[in-house]
Write a structure and sequence with these properties.
3-stranded antiparallel beta sheet; 73% helix; binds zinc ion
Length: 389
Amino acid sequence: MTELLWLLLPVAAASGWWAARRAGEHQSSATARSAGYFKGLNLLIEDQPDQAIEVFTRMADVDRDTAEIHLALGNLFRRRGEVDRAIHIHSSLIARPRLASSQRRRAMLELGEDYLRAGLFDRAEALFRELLDQPAHTQTALARLIHIFQQEKEWRQAIAYSDRLERISGEYRGRQIAHFCCELAEEALARSEDADARSWLSDALTRDPGCTRANLLLGQLAMRAGDYPQAIAAFQAVERQDPGYFPEVIAPLSECYRILGRLDEWSAHLRQIQRQQHGGRVTDALADWLLRYEGEDAALQFLEGELREHPTLLGLRRLVEIKLERGEGAEYADLHALHCISTQMLNSAARYRCDHCGLIVKSLHWCCPGCQQWAAIKPLPDLVMKTGV
Ligand SMILES: [Zn+2]
């Protein structure tokens, strides 16, 4: 309700300006118009937004010359989710033969936003392309076209237009462009065109040397080629770029060290990380290593000491699992129940959180589904319940 009121204040302001400008010529119609706006505002204040919108709509229909009012109303409808009405208002405005060119361009921009909201990307793209040569709207049109290319997975176009926007605005866009390169690399990987994928990943790291995703993919490429030392180098580069992504490289690093027979090195590395992070995933990985190579007692001793200082859900479940394996007499039924509960909790828990909007999700998205930021979603040190954050 308050939002609606603020949205319509420009409408009221436009009315005042319009009325003042033409006061000498059409005093009586301006007075009637002002009365209408105040009636509309009163309805808003009385929390009757639908009736208020009807009043404003009737007034806009009567006053064919008031383009500003139509623009404001169209935006209002779009914000309320009434996209068809917004499209109708903005299309009608553009169709007017005597509309000022600056207002026509603004109406085109708004109509493009309407089409975007309606998912009509082809129509939106055509409108934004028309606006590219208008200096006042070039940056906005480029940004919206980049958004469309992302939705349509037209990554080459997204890169080309991002480069253009970076040149015009002077604003660094390398982080985003690096992810477009990674998207192309993943497509090449899916086609088994490894050389092409490697080239895109090199491009990604040139654009953004901090791009962890590029090194993760380079590690996967190296593993696929059987070059495990190279894979280890790539995964360790991820750690250096952002230690928060270490949980993502635990499994592949463990695999590489195992194949190369360098398990002591892996164990030493895990212990070093565990002393710094104490997260559930690192604890679980170290317990797993101890269980495999040093036995149950070593794993239990480590977990009991670690969980006392740094309790984690993953660590707890691992502890219970080991005790269940041992089948510890009368405690068995209790342990089984505890294992079921912790597994259920873990199955519905989230592993990642967006640094930008706080969204928590179960799998890694490189582009946040909540705020559309790239590389903002990071692994959580331990799993958390989705309602817990
Ligand atoms: Zn987000």
